[in-house]
Amino acid sequence: MNTDLKTQLQHLLELQQIDIQIYDLRRIKEEKPAKIAELEAAFEAKRGALAGLEKAALDLQKQKKDREGELASREESIQKLQGQLYQLKTNKEYHTMQQQIEDAKADKSVIEDKILEFMESIDASRADVEKEKARLTEEEKVFTEGKKALQAEIREIDDKLACLETQRKQATPLIKAEVLAQYDRILKIRGGLALVPVQGTSCGGCHMFVPPQVINMISMYDTLVTCEMCNRILYLDERSAGT
Length: 243
Ligand SMILES: [Zn+2]
Prior knowledge:
With 243 residues, the chain is mainly alpha-helical. It has helices at 3-85, 91-171, 177-189, 212-220, 238-241; strands at 195-199, 202-203, 233-235. The chain is built from five helices and three strands, in the order H-H-H-E-E-H-E-H. 10% of the residues are buried. The protein binds zinc ion. Zinc ion is lined by residues 203, 205-206, 208, 227, 229-230, 232.
């Protein structure tokens, strides 16, 4: 039995326990920016909704102004017609112009009604804008707090990661360079799990069958044995194997 290899495996196991935490934390950390972006997008959408309401209010005001312009020109033409009324020579001409004046007055009244409708719509539209503004102020608080919380979580993870990296630096010098290189290579490929126990007769990483002769090889501690399927380094958990 190569007691040196057995010790190496024990050191590797300690390293693997550190690396499991590092990879877990990195995975959790990686999700955070997407969550922040999600919050930002949701808030931007709400801000966009307010901008839409504000634009609608401005459009209504513009339409009202256009109608007021129409009203003014209508009034002007009525006055002009009334001015000409007494210069007319015949009864027929007089009568025709008076009809024109009546028509213009009717048009004017329709326009005035429209302007009143616009004023009501503008009031309602402004109330909507104010309500949305108040709501958005609340939303902004929720958004800012949510973002801060996520950023704090990232900082907390970074602190833990720094601590684990320090532990890792202390653990690696105990492991032979070629063993560590092999372990690190598998760790990267296999998403943070390079060293796994044999569980019964299967690999603790990929759960494929581990033949008895392979288990026998592991128990001899002559060389590092890897799983034929997933290539992870195998070890015997002697507490559960009872050997
Ligand atoms: Zn495997």
